[in-house]
Write a structure and sequence with these properties.
This protein is α/β, with parallel strands linked by helices. Helices cover about 40% and strands about 15% of the residues. The protein is built from 15 helices and 14 strands. The strands form 2 sheets. An 8-stranded mixed sheet has the order 3-4-2-1-5-6-7-8, sandwiched between helices. Helix 2 runs parallel beside helix 3 and helix 8 packs across helix 13. It is globular, with a radius of gyration of 22 Å. The model has no long low-confidence stretch (mean pLDDT about 95).
């Protein structure tokens, strides 16, 4: 069987970004499914464009998995990003035809929605070939747009976007949601058959993001990051991620000021962003001795860094995203794989942290709440602390890409069976 995965932001395994398609392709190959990944040439996370000439697409095989990079312009934000999305959508059709003539047509398409035009293209290309299309919904769109922008759901544009979303969900042969509670949205919209709508809830499946656990554990011992603070006896709180307003790292700084300034607690911040210098300056001027900015580190070093923590911190904004339906952050699964407790600054629905009892979630995102959570973990007796550590590892095992790929294989089998009825 030949499967095409269409994912605008899919990246090669050696680059930062979305490697979920590559992981699935690796495991599906072991089950007789040959997968080709279609992605944009402009790499959103690194800012590099993989096509620097006039080629329509670039073909590259990595780890026996073929990638087809569709030529797109650079798209770092705003109008440029929208232009980038549209170029990917438009370019897909020509690239798909040329690739199919040379390598054969697909038997099924999996179209992912970091942006909606990719799902639309997947449905349209699948129709042309007379094959089924599975749509993977990473973030509920356009709900995320309504939450983070000035566009309102009840506006004319909002209604048009929602109608487009409904059309894609209706015409997908199967839907894969990355958050467990995303099907609640279909019920809220009254789109399901049982509510008089036109979407069969039986074609909806849940497959979260995950971790390649064996590789993660190898990297802990293979890529050791030299940092004396990681080897100290202090209680180490680690945040790894972007340092931008949307990540609200300033909340961590405020929480640090409420903690004892005796060196027994160290907050280590790994990452970069447009707020780093400003916050670093604040730490220096206000003489906050328990916070250190470590800067950007290569992804391969993160397993070791996170494994040396006492607790790992998920620091989210509670205002710019609807957390009631769950969490599909890649970082969460990296934290679980480290085998250390997790603190989340937002309380999510369908909580993985709560389900596996491997950390704490804050009901309110306040500096005092975060400081209290850090102290609660620090003051735990060793039996409870080690239980959190073991539970984190058990949670990671459930989201290993080997297991997730078997779930995807079930969806593929169900979709083929439905088409053959």
């Amino acid at each position: 069987m030949n499967l095409w995965i269409i994912h605008h932001y899919a990246t090669l395994p050696n680059l930062n970004g979305h490697i979920r398609p590559f992981r699935f392709a690796q495991h599906l190959k072991n089950n007789g499914i040959n997968t080709t990944i279609f992605a944009a040439s402009y790499q959103h996370f690194s800012g590099e464009n993989l096509i620097k000439d006039k080629r329509k697409y670039r073909y590259k095989v990595t780890g026996d998995i073929p990638f087809v990079f569709v030529r797109t312009p650079d798209g770092s934000g705003g109008a440029a990003r929208i232009k980038n999305m549209l170029a990917f959508y438009k370019g897909l059709f020509n690239c798909a035809d040329r690739y199919a003539k040379k390598n054969g047509k697909p038997d099924m398409i999996l179209a992912s929605s970091p942006q909606p035009f990719a799902m639309l293209a997947g449905i349209q290309i699948a129709r042309k070939y007379g094959i089924p299309c599975i749509c993977e919904v990473r973030d509920l769109w356009p709900e995320a747009v309504f939450k983070a922008s000035k566009i309102k759901e009840k506006s004319l544009l909002g209604k048009i976007l929602t109608a487009g979303e409904h059309w894609m969900y209706k015409h997908a042969d199967a839907l894969v949601f990355t958050k467990e509670g995303d099907t609640d949205y279909l019920k809220e919209q009254k789109w399901t058959l049982i509510q008089g709508g036109d979407i069969d809830i039986r074609k909806c499946f849940y497959i979260n993001n995950g971790i390649e656990l064996a590789e993660y554990e190898r990297e802990i011992t293979k890529y050791i990051f030299s940092d004396e603070d990681l080897e100290s006896d202090a209680f180490k709180v680690i945040y790894a991620g972007a340092i931008r307003p949307v990540n609200n790292v300033a909340n961590i700084i405020e929480a640090a000021k409420l903690l004892p300034q005796d060196g027994n607690i160290q907050i280590l911040i790994y990452g970069d962003g447009n707020q780093k210098e400003e916050l670093q300056k604040r730490v220096q001027e206000e003489k906050i001795i328990n916070v250190k900015f470590k800067g950007f580190v290569e992804k391969k070093y993160l397993p070791y860094i996170l494994s040396r923590s006492s607790v790992n911190l998920l620091n989210y904004s509670s205002e710019n995203y609807n957390w009631s339906r769950g969490n599909s952050s890649n970082k969460l699964f990296e934290y679980l794989a480290s085998g250390k407790p997790v603190i989340s600054t937002v309380k999510t629905g369908y909580s993985i942290i709560e389900k596996y009892q491997c950390g704490l979630e804050m009901a309110r995102q306040t500096p005092q709440g975060l400081a209290d959570a850090i102290l609660q973990i620090q003051n735990m007796n060793s039996i409870q602390y080690q239980k959190f550590c073991r539970n984190a590892k058990k949670g990671a095992e459930e989201f290993d890409y080997g297991k997730l790929s078997l779930r995807l294989l079930d969806v593929i089998t169900w979709t083929r069976g439905k088409r053959n009825v």
